[in-house]
């Protein structure tokens, strides 16, 4: 059994210590914001924060992080109002959205170390791959989040988490086909 903290909750995993952190998070903890991309640590879709460092979770056996602190995209801001999340929305960064959680987690670790990163530093540190090619907007979103973190800019509020039951799928009487005869 392996014990460490995930999103400020102590967790004991009854999994083989060689299990990649990615699968412990997704399968055992149902934290599906951390994505499986390549499985080799190259794409960055699975990036999480371990003790303040951006780490590719597909390459980390859970047995190697006993006693450490892991933060996933779900734990970054349960209300989805972290400056990076708001800046990514404001800059219209997400297209398909698959790479975004990993990019945000990598950027969060960068902003902890440097709240005013240059474009060159962002491009050097954020090596996550994006098939949609949103890199210029990612750079601007990270710099904008840095300005918000430093109190130089106020970001617009993002959408509330979850779906209001009144907005969920429902049958519209005019669109319901007539019963078969």
UniProtKB/TrEMBL annotation:
Molecular function terms from GO: 2 iron, 2 sulfur cluster binding; metal ion binding; oxidoreductase activity
Domain 2Fe-2S ferredoxin-type, residue spans: 1-76
This protein's UniProt keywords: 2Fe-2S, Iron, Iron-sulfur, Metal-binding, Oxidoreductase
Keyword Nuclease: no
Keyword hit for Iron-sulfur: yes
InterPro entries, per database record: 2Fe-2S-bd, 2Fe-2S-bd_dom_sf, 2Fe-2S_ferredoxin-like_sf, 2Fe-2S_ferredoxin-type, 2Fe2S_fd_BS, Beta-grasp_dom_sf, Diverse_Oxidoreductases
Pfam families per the UniProt record, alphabetical: Fer2, Fer2_2
PANTHER family listed in its UniProt record: BLR6218 PROTEIN (PTHR44379:SF2), OXIDOREDUCTASE WITH IRON-SULFUR SUBUNIT (PTHR44379)
Protein's recorded name: Isoquinoline 1-oxidoreductase alpha subunit
The organism of origin for this protein: Sphingomonas aerolata
């Amino acid at each position: 059994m392996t014990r460490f903290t995930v999103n400020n909750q102590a967790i004991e995993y009854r999994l083989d210590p060689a299990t990649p952190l990615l699968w412990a998070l997704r399968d055992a903890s149902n934290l599906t914001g951390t994505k499986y991309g390549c499985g080799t640590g190259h794409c960055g879709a699975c990036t999480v924060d371990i003790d303040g460092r951006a780490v590719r979770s597909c390459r980390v056996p859970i047995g190697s992080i006993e006693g450490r602190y892991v933060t996933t995209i779900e734990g970054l801001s349960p209300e989805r109002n972290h400056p990076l999340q708001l800046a990514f929305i404001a800059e219209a960064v997400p297209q398909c959205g698959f790479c975004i959680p990993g990019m945000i987690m990598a950027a969060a670790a960068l902003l902890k170390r440097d709240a005013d990163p240059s474009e060159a530093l962002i491009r050097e540190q954020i090596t996550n791959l994006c098939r949609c090619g949103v890199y210029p907007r990612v750079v601007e979103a990270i710099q904008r989040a840095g300005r918000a973190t430093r109190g130089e800019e106020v970001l617009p509020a993002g959408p509330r988490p979850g779906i209001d039951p009144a907005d969920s799928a429902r049958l519209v009487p005019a669109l319901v086909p007539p019963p078969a005869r």
